[in-house]
Amino acid sequence: MILEFLHITGGVIVIENWDVFLGPYEQAIDELKIKFKGIRTQFEQQALHSPIEFVTGRVKPIPSILDKAIRKNIDMKKVETEMQDIAGIRMMCQFVEDIETVVKLLRKRKDFDIIEERDYINHKKDSGYRSYHLVIRYPVEIVDGSKDILVEIQIRTLSMNFWATIEHSLNYKYSGQIPANIQKRLQSAAEAAFRLDEEMSLIRDEIQEAQAIFSRKNEI
Ligand code: 0O2
Ligand code: 0O2
């Protein structure tokens, strides 16, 4: 329960012991990274194309949690349920088609429940942002028993990731107010990233065959 970490200073509710509060989130990220990297390893062991290229994860830094709570008017008492990305995992894929494969794999898993799905691939954001988002309820075992943690999983191609990383830095630089001319450039860069994904999909069989030959050569 978050309440045990809350404490009122000058009328403002603050979290008193961040380490203890964020501990289960760190644990969830560590466990999920191992599990998802394991999926990739299993595909490789069977000499199959892995729909997952690489996996990253992070616990949201404390200043970002506080910023977002203020920006979105989230009551700190409800931060565990209303801020769904305190724990975040990202899975990068080579091809757009891989994203659906990964989503299907995740839907079959028994170690968490998917509580929300947001398809920003077929419904891209106005900024040009594309990714598939899932929010899962993941149980971590802690000394006091089991604790359910919400984790946001973002699944995207390498090309979508390139665009999102650049756009995120610009957003940070301009505090969310990117000048109109740069915004326009970003939108056309998003179009270019979309076309790159399309082009790669057209020669997917060829690329995968080449990658299989390359990995067999490395094994020898
Ligand atoms: P910045 O500027 O914040 O992007 P390892 O244990 O070695 O596999 P490590 O070093 O712990 O990995 O980090 P990992 O898992 O490779 O990735 C951490 C970076 O990925 C962070 O960047 C995060 O920004 C980013 N990241 C990963 N997943 C997410 C996510 O779901 N949401 C968000 N917002 N970011 C994510 P840095 O290095 O902190 O720099
Ligand atoms: P971080 O840690 O800086 O990445 P909101 O969180 O309010 O934006 P919502 O509905 O809670 O919206 O969640 P949404 O939009 O499904 O996913 C939020 C996260 O998706 C963001 O986290 C980003 O990581 C990513 N995202 C969404 N829209 C964009 C976008 O236009 N550009 C980029 N680069 N990333 C986007 P945060 O909150 O920014 O945290």
Automatic annotation (TrEMBL):
InterPro entries from the UniProt entry: GTP_Pyrophosphokinase (IPR052366), NT_sf (IPR043519), RelA_SpoT (IPR007685)
Matching Gene3D superfamilies: Beta Polymerase, domain 2, Nucleotidyltransferase
RelA/SpoT domain sequence ranges: 57-178
Entries under SMART domains matching the protein: RelA_SpoT (SM00954)
Protein's pathway: Purine metabolism; ppGpp biosynthesis; ppGpp from GTP: step 1/2
Coiled-coil annotated spans: none
CDD domains the record matches: NT_Rel-Spo_like
Cross-referenced PANTHER family: GTP PYROPHOSPHOKINASE YJBM
Protein name as catalogued: GTP pyrophosphokinase family protein
Lineage: Bacteria, Bacillati, Bacillota, Bacilli, Bacillales
